[in-house]
């Protein structure tokens, strides 16, 4: 497994002591249980600058750290990955920045990851590369190790070619990805966008999901398959966790601490502009203002976990969100009744499960999201078959889970307000009907099934010599 981050983040204390904690984000949530079952190594960055560390075992996995310098973190991670690709791939919600130095660093770091994978993979091994930070690795790795079977999974959306075409290095990215045998996407639409980009930007032939690369003589050679494999969570683990007496008791305690409101709304996101947090809070504030919600009877808990704090767009977002929360609380809060409980923290899975159990309505209103695993965690936690999931149309999860959730267009503030009210007033019978349907889907289509389906398609690839021209 090759991913930008290891599942644990290192930190160095002022006295030089090394410690680690779980890394943020959906990718780790999904891949950790897969790797705990597999006999393999996870190659990734340790989360701190200039930290060289030998491979080690943690949480039941073999971890191989890749070192990044402070400048590489700035240019490859914060720059090209999160200020160029991230906004470009998420519908340019924020404007992407194009810097040649960032691209150079992205190439160099991708080469380092490819080399680490080449050094650690056994002959004929399967290597699974993940996400937008490492799109050049499949091609680089194939050049280094033609004996390997290489898969790539894109955890975020793949944009339409009309947006992707802005990228000065679009051709290199497409060729980098085509080093893989199988390229997985979250939604059919993402896979189709990629195949369209291949058609527009290269002269390779495509037939449905299969792209045929020419060999050195220009004859049809290796095939690459681009297809959707919607990712999931370890549903059973989450379901079990939420059933434990500790988590159940904690859920009751949270409700009491919130002042025993009639209705608790919950948002759980990395503090990211793609998540639609501002739109959600605006709608919630207007509902209080219109008198359609009563602060003494309803409250919104918004967990916004810290993310990419050195990137300007994230710093701006934090200011905007915090001003907005302050304004809504100042205007509509009463003694003992906060309109919004805003928590800029990350929490362990136990606390998340308790929060999900507390939430009568879960608000997932992303402006664009590859999948959104929070929506799936909420459903997995609700074995009581209560609670309503409000879900943005612009998430991969909406493609998969409809018609169970109440779908919402987060740009339509009036529409979102109506859906929030409809969710709050939904009768128990209807809640159960919808939650049952959602749970049937999520408890069956879990992360093990996701990885098995990807890996079985990859295993079916006939190994071929890499005789196509080098790039
Ligand atoms: O799922 C998208 C993703 O960017 C993952 O690649 C990443 O692990 C997660 O979100 C969190 O982001 P970051 O690693 O930048 O904190």
Automatic annotation (TrEMBL):
<protein>
    <submittedName>
        <fullName>Bifunctional alpha,alpha-trehalose-phosphate synthase (UDP-forming)/trehalose-phosphatase</fullName>
    </submittedName>
</protein>
<comment type="similarity">
    <text>Belongs to the glycosyltransferase 20 family.</text>
</comment>
């Amino acid at each position: 497994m090759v991913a930008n981050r290891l599942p644990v983040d290192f930190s160095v204390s002022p006295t030089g002591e090394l410690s680690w904690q779980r890394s943020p984000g959906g990718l780790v949530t999904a891949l950790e249980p897969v790797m705990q079952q597999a006999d393999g190594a996870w190659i990734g960055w340790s989360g701190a600058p200039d930290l060289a560390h030998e491979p080690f075992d943690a949480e039941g996995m073999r971890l191989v750290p890749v070192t990044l310098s402070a400048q590489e973190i700035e240019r490859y991670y914060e720059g090209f990955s999160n200020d160029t690709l991230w906004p470009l791939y998420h519908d340019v919600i924020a404007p992407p920045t194009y810097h040649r130095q960032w691209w150079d660093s992205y190439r160099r770091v991708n080469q380092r990851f490819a080399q680490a994978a080449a050094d650690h993979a056994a002959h004929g091994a399967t290597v699974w590369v993940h996400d937008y930070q490492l799109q050049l690795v499949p091609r680089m790795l194939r050049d280094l190790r033609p004996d390997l079977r290489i898969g790539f999974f894109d955890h975020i959306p793949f944009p339409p070619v009309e947006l992707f075409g802005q990228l000065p290095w679009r051709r290199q990215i497409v060729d980098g990805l085509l080093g893989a045998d199988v390229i997985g996407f979250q939604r059919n639409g993402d896979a189709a966008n990629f195949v369209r980009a291949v058609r527009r930007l290269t002269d390779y032939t495509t037939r449905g999901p299969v792209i045929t690369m020419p060999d050195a003589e220009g004859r049809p050679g290796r095939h690459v398959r681009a297809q959707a494999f919607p990712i999931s969570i370890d549903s059973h683990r989450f379901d079990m966790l939420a059933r434990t007496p500790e988590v159940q008791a904690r859920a009751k305690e949270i409700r009491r601490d919130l002042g025993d409101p009639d209705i608790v709304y919950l948002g759980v996101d990395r503090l990211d502009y793609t998540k639609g947090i501002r739109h959600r809070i605006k709608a919630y504030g207007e509902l209080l203002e219109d008198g359609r919600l009563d602060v003494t009877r309803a409250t919104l808990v918004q967990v916004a976990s810290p993310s990419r704090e050195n990137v300007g767009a994230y710093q701006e977002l934090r200011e905007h969100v915090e001003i907005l929360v302050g304004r809504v609380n100042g205007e509509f809060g009463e003694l003992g009744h906060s309109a919004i409980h805003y928590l800029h923290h990350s929490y362990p899975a136990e606390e998340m499960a308790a929060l999900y159990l507390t939430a009568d309505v879960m608000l997932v209103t992303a402006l664009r999201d590859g999948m959104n695993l929070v929506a799936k965690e909420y459903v997995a936690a609700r074995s009581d078959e209560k609670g309503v999931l409000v879900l943005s149309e612009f998430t991969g999860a909406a493609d998969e889970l409809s018609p169970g959730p109440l779908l919402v267009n987060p740009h339509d503030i009036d529409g979102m307000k109506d859906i929030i009210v409809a969710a709050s007033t939904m009768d128990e019978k209807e809640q159960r009907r919808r939650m049952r349907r959602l749970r049937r889907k999520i408890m069956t289509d879990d992360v093990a099934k996701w990885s098995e389906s990807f890996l079985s398609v990859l295993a079916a690839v006939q190994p071929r010599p890499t005789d196509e021209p080098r790039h």
